[in-house]
Amino acid sequence: MRKTKQTFTTLQKLEYAKLMVNSGYSNKEVMELSGACSSAVIRWKRQYLAELSGVTPVASALTTSYSRIRKAVKSCLER
Predict the structure, then answer these.
(1) Nearest C-alpha neighbor of 57 from the set 47, 65, 71
(2) At 22, is the secondary structure helix, strand, or coil?
(3) How many Cβ atoms sit within 10 Å of the Cβ of residue 34?
(4) Where on the phi/psi map is residue 24: left (φ > 0), alpha (ψ -120 to 50), or beta?
């Protein structure tokens, strides 16, 4: 039987990624805490590390700095 699809807010994804990167939680521990699948957890961690190193995200940003940049660009384009 399939699990129902869970949705996570950007803030939740960021917090789980920080647990893995900053607090040393393993992917498996975060999977158990969140109920997310392994591919989602790996993706959150990879995206968080990329954003920390300066890579602009293609999807929605996890870190606040990229979120602010995206909102500023959007407002400039709307003018």
Answers:
(1) 47
(2) helix
(3) 18
(4) left
Q: What is the pLDDT of residues 25-56, one digit of tens each?
A: 999 999 999 999 999 999 999 999 998 888 87
pLDDT (0 to 100) of residue 66: 66
Closest to 65 (Cα-Cα) out of 53, 77, 78, 79: 53
- Tell me if 39 sits within 8 A of 54, measured CB to CB: no
Q: Which helix (H) or strand (E) holds 36?
A: none
Contact 47, 59 (CB under 8 A): yes
Residue 21's contacts (CB-CB under 8 Å, 6 or more residues apart) are 45, 48, 49, 52
Other Cβ atoms closer than 10 A to 20: 19
CA distance 16 to 54: 20
HSE at residue 3, side-chain half, CA atoms within 13 A, is 6
